């Protein structure tokens, strides 16, 4: 399977990506992700506000209803599988989503959270000729140092 067709390869080279500097770029991104001020828990603290205990924090993507009955039952069944890598389950979810959406299976990716795919989307779809345009408030991590390979975003307030 050829993931990078000629057009994608040309685009990566045009944006400054080459085999020579790929290792440096990967190392920088990896190092940046380990810094204490730039990780999931650090970013989650940005949503901390002084609010009444029963307040719904929309800025933290809270769901005041909690999981539905079927989701709670499925989660309870998975307790017995704790500590196991259930790769087949991930594959089943990927296949199901692809079928439901009418897309190819390799067009669906399953992630444990949104940070990784959002970081990858910023890197994949921005460049000197394709700047990131975002609202404020928006996706804060797009402005973080490890993603400085992309051009400075245009922030609309």
Describe the fold and architecture.
It is a single chain. By secondary structure, this protein is mostly helical. It has two domains: 1-52 and 114-157, no CATH class; 67-110, no CATH class. Helix content is 42%, strand content 4%. The protein has a two-stranded parallel sheet. The chain is globular, with a radius of gyration of 19 Å.
Summary tags:
157 residues; mainly alpha; 2 domains; globular
Strand residues, percent: under 5%
Radius of gyration: 19 Å
Count the DSSP helices: 6
Identify the overall geometry: globular
Strand order of the largest sheet: 1-2
* Fraction of helical residues: 40-55%
Strand runs, count: 2
Q: What number is the mean pLDDT? A: 77
Distance between the termini: 43 Å
Q: Tell me about the largest β-sheet.
A: 2 strands, parallel
> How many separate domains?
2
SSE arrangement, N to C? HHHHHHEE
- Residue stretches low in confidence (pLDDT < 50, at least 5 long) are none
Q: Structural class of the helices, strands and pairings?
A: mainly alpha
């Amino acid at each position: 399977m050829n993931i990078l067709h000629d057009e994608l390869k040309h685009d990566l080279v045009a944006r400054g990506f080459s085999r020579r500097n790929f290792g440096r770029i990967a190392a920088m991104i990896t190092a940046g992700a380990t810094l204490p001020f730039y990780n999931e828990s650090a970013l989650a603290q940005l949503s901390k506000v002084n609010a009444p205990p029963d307040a719904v924090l929309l800025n933290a993507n809270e769901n005041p209803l909690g999981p539905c009955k079927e989701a709670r039952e499925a989660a309870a069944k998975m307790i017995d599988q704790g500590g196991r890598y259930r790769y087949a389950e991930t594959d089943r979810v990927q296949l199901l989503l692809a079928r439901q959406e009418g897309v190819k299976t390799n067009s669906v990716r399953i992630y444990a959270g949104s940070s990784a795919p959002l970081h990858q989307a910023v890197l994949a779809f921005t460049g000197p000729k394709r700047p990131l345009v975002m609202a404020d408030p928006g996706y804060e991590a797009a402005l973080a140092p490890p993603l400085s390979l992309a051009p400075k975003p245009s922030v609309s307030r």
